[in-house]
Write a structure and sequence with these properties.
Strands 7, 8, 9, 10, 13, 14, 15, 16 and 17 form a 9-stranded mixed beta sheet that branches. The chain has 3 domains: 53 residues, RNA-binding S4 domain (Structural Genomics Hypothetical 15.5 Kd Protein In mrcA-pckA Intergenic Region, Chain A, Roll); 87 residues, 2-Layer Sandwich (Alpha-Beta Plaits), CATH 3.30.70; 75 residues, Alpha-Beta Plaits (2-Layer Sandwich). The longest helix has 11 residues. The protein is of the alpha+beta class. The mean pLDDT is 88. Helix 1 crosses helix 2.
Length: 241
């Protein structure tokens, strides 16, 4: 992962403005990072979303990249290549800077998007935008009708109750679930609340994109897929409210 750099240095390095001009805009409250107006000395990372006067700033010659990756079990969804040797960035080894949209736990597998477009990251991830993600989940003991009903109706975890969702049993110990939120380890915590343990978890769809590449492989999202994603997020909450 790139080390954090001061926002004025970053804006200077990408050719947006001089450090002095950046400092002046910071002082005037015209620069925001991840939706928050910042003060002097703030440092940024590659995945941070920077706005100046409400407009997203990114390196001028950087082409937007959107890929779909089938993450294997054991790969960690982090850009911190110095800490995690089994990280997603080194595994894919993409020729330019990208970062994951959201995450899948190390023991989980399946579809994850990676991009260099920080603005779309926020729009896809914000829970209130209700974008669908579908999973196939295997648990350690037979599933009951009551389990399916409770999972779909909402489970109290992390000081909240999960949003009602679609759940369907597919095999004796397997079910499909469609979430429209992304709480930390949500499915595992939901199952644990009902005294079940997840033994396998695969994400098979994000919004309009289904998993269609072999494990450990990736592909670019098509123009048609991106058109639909952009349509789905065009009414999403903006990065600055």
């Amino acid at each position: 992962m790139s080390d954090p750099v001061r926002i004025n240095k970053y804006l200077s390095e990408i050719g947006y403005c001089s450090r002095r001009a950046a400092d002046k805009m910071i002082d005037q409250g015209r620069i925001a990072v991840n939706g928050e107006v910042i003060g002097m000395g703030v440092k940024v990372l590659p995945e941070d979303v920077i706005h100046v006067d409400g407009e997203v700033v990114r390196p001028g010659n950087e082409k937007a990249i959107y890929i779909a990756f089938n993450k294997p079990v054991g790969i960690v969804c982090t850009t911190d290549t110095a800490v995690e040797k089994d990280n997603i960035i080194d595994y894919i080894n993409f020729p330019s800077r990208i970062f994951p949209i959201g995450r899948l736990d190390k023991p989980s597998e399946g579809l994850i998007f990676l991009t260099n477009d920080g603005d779309i990251v926020n729009k896809i991830l914000r829970a209130r935008n209700h974008h669908e993600k579908e999973y196939v989940v295997t648990v350690n003991r037979p599933i009951t009708d009551d389990f399916i009903k409770q999972m779909g109706g909402g489970i109290p975890i992390l000081d909240t109750v999960t949003r009602p969702c679609e759940v369907k049993q597919t095999h004796k110990k397997e079910f499909k679930i469609i979430l429209t939120q992304g709480l930390n380890r949500q499915i595992r915590r939901m199952c644990e609340y009902l005294d079940y343990r997840v033994t396998a978890l695969k994400r098979t769809r994000i919004m309009n994109v289904s998993l269609d590449v072999d494990k450990g492989k990736w592909r670019h999202l098509t123009a048609a897929e991106m058109d639909e994603i952009n349509r789905l997020v065009e009414t999403s909450s903006k990065t600055i409210d």
